[in-house]
């Protein structure tokens, strides 16, 4: 069942009693109003510890229902230990504290690789595919963040760009281990989705086993609040993600907002300690014939209570693990999701993701 104790006020609408009504129908009703919209909190422990398929199916159905209606969940009892997450944040902060000239030695170069350091202003995430429009947005309202992108370290073509051990002790091993931990969780969540879509539980296993993912460490430096409140400005503009799932590990600052798919208004994804924010990406939405929602989201100025004395926003950190199918997997409609017919032509994972990356960087 949902674990909804001690939630922030913004999530209070999700605290209800079923009283004989299905959780699915109740969630569907509540997401259609901004006054009752919220991101469900799903306890993943019953799935991880379930001894039989029937034991796991209940959690799988809750998860898929949430992804159908909202596209986002808070996942608790996910198996990623808190000390592992804390260490990752500590190593990430130390990297971003390095001098710019040191970080630029690792500069991002190629969307096919998608590895290396991305300085503030270089990326402009958006739903637009028009190069002129993206260039205009980048010039007028660049994303106020920096990142370093990490892929699978054994790739035969593309190599990760690691800082020197003397500059960032323990950085490489920390994130090699973290990458594997996130991949293992990805496999488990995809198994839950498979069950919820009435597929064999391991239906996705061989389609994601090459670990063609992207681990992104993000740093949002302090910035004058008034600059972020100007029209079109954001720490990260409104966008959807590209792959199957995204795992977002947040610090306590806040600023992530999720769009209500029904009203198109944005709502705060308030950090909840011990949870991972998980959302559906475009390729899994296509795979499921849009049964699962790839929901727009953005990062804006955090709540006013988080402001520093000089009215600048505090530094914000997050870690995003972008889960992808295997690079050469052909994404075509899942057999149980065909309905009245597939909405999309088949597409190769790598071709789709590289195309999206090429349009958002310069």
UniProtKB/TrEMBL annotation:
The keyword Iron applies. GO terms for molecular function: metal ion binding; oxidoreductase activity. InterPro entries: DIOX_N, IPNS-like_FE2OG_OXY, IPNS-like_sf, Iron_ascorbate_oxido_reductase, Oxoglu/Fe-dep_dioxygenase_dom. Keywords: Iron, Metal-binding, Oxidoreductase. Pfam families: 2OG-FeII_Oxy, DIOX_N. It comes from the Eukaryota. Residues 211-325 form the Fe2OG dioxygenase domain. PANTHER family: 2-OXOGLUTARATE (2OG) AND FE(II)-DEPENDENT OXYGENASE SUPERFAMILY PROTEIN-RELATED. Belongs to the iron/ascorbate-dependent oxidoreductase family. This is Fe2OG dioxygenase domain-containing protein. It comes from Botryobasidium botryosum (strain FD-172 SS1). The lineage of its organism: Eukaryota, Fungi, Dikarya, Basidiomycota, Agaricomycotina.
């Amino acid at each position: 069942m949902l674990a909804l104790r001690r939630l922030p006020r913004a999530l209070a609408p999700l605290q209800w009693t079923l009283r004989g009504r299905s959780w699915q129908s109740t969630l569907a009703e509540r997401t259609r109003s901004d006054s009752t919209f919220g991101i469900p909190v799903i306890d993943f422990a019953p799935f991880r510890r379930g001894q039989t398929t029937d034991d796991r199916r209940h959690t799988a159905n809750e998860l898929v229902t949430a992804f159908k209606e909202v596209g986002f969940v808070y996942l608790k009892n996910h198996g990623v230990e808190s000390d592992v997450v804390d260490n990752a944040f500590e190593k990430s902060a130390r990297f971003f504290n390095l001098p710019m000239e040191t970080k630029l030695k690792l500069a991002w170069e190629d969307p096919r690789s998608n590895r290396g350091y991305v300085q503030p202003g270089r990326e402009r995430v958006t739903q637009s595919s028009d190069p002129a429009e993206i260039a205009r947005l980048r010039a007028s309202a660049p994303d106020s963040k920096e990142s370093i992108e990490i892929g699978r370290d054994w790739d035969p073509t593309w190599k990760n760009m690691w800082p020197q051990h003397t500059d960032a002790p323990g950085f490489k091993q920390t994130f090699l281990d973290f990458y594997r931990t996130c991949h293992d969780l990805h496999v488990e969540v995809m198994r839950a989705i498979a069950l919820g879509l009435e597929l064999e539980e391991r239906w996705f296993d061989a389609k994601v086993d090459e670990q063609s993912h992207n681990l992104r460490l993000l740093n949002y430096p302090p910035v004058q609040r008034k600059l972020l409140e100007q029209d079109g400005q954001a720490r990260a503009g409104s966008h959807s993600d590209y792959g199957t799932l995204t795992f977002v590990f947040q610090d306590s600052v806040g600023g992530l907002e999720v769009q209500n798919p029904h009203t198109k208004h944005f709502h705060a994804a308030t950090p909840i300690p011990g949870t991972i924010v998980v959302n559906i990406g475009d390729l899994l939405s296509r795979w499921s014939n849009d049964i699962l929602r790839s929901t727009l989201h953005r990062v804006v100025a955090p709540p006013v209570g988080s402001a520093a004395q000089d009215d600048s926003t505090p530094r914000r950190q997050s870690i995003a693990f972008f889960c992808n199918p295997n690079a050469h997997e052909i994404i075509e409609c899942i057999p149980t999701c065909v309905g009245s017919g597939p909405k999309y032509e088949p597409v190769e994972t790598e071709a789709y993701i590289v195309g999206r990356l090429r349009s958002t960087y310069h």
